[in-house]
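[audit] Reproducing an earlier prediction to check determinism. Same input, same settings, fresh worker. If the tokens differ from the archived copy the diff job will pick it up downstream; this log only records the rerun itself.
[audit] input (350 residues):
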Amino acid sequence: MGGRLRPRFPSSLTDLELAERIAPEPPALAIGTPLCPRCGQPDFEGVEFCGLCGMSMAGAHRHGIDGPQEGVWTAPGPHGLLTYRSIRARTRVFRSVLMLAIVVSLASAFAHLAYYAGLDPILPRLPVDNSVWADWIGRLRTEVVAIVVLVCVAAAWWTSRAYRNLLPMQIRGLRVSVTLARVAWLIPLANVWLSKPITDDLFRASDPAVGFRSSTWRKRPAPLLSNVGWVALICALLLIPLSVALMPDVVASNEGQLRVALLIGVSGYLLLVLGLGALAVLADQIADRQEARVDRLGTSPRPSLRQLHNKAAQARVADEQVEAEAAAAAARTGRLDQRPTSGDPLWGSY
């Protein structure tokens, strides 16, 4: 008895469960794709928060541009010119200027003290007439003013490099902008107040123990040496002008007032020496801390434009290879995934 043609049942390969199906390949990361700063999840849709961990994408890293997470920028790139440069040479120059200011301040304090000893019958006096000391006090007063201006210029020159290093050293949360920090020492009167937070930020943020792109350094206390030096400078800036104002024109009838003015001058110049010395020590410590932080994090040069183009070309080649492999795989499995139809030669065969 002859058989009848019956349709075959469709292959079970066409009814694969969702869990058994091959997941699609994730899209390749393009140059500049935002990455979550916490988990590294790429953001292809431009969302405000990471879809995996919920982290804000405001500080997201850019793939192929921001480079590795830990590293100090030492070369300029297409997205910024701020790079780390050692401040050791500038620190030596700045320290030399501070030492010169300390020598001039000590000489002025000695002249005030020698003049006072010449007026007091009890204290031992040098074999120099008091008019000579008065003349030296007037000369050194002008030199102190000039040396203070030179210190401010040198401090602005040193700070412009030291403060610019903080951003390439992966420091966040700066209280003062880089532009203001570069000119803060040159602003009259305001430099007395601005110099303190800038110096404190430099000392605390340059700590090698501060994390990558972290602002936890702001919770650390200011160094004691900075507080002592700043108070000494403030007192010196008040006592020295007061000493000049109390100097009498006629010495014979105002000897008591002259002694008070000389003692105030000695105190003011000694406090100035203390403040300048503290600033010199802080500058050395900041230079050491920045170098130690660079040694801990390592250097990570920013890629050049040619490197970025090479990365983009490599990414395109990788995408084409993935698409070719996917097309070949689809061609191999297409026959199994295709449901038989009435026009198929196998339709109804056993």
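[audit] rerun output stored. Observation attached for the diff report: The beta strands are 34-35, 61-62.
[audit] end
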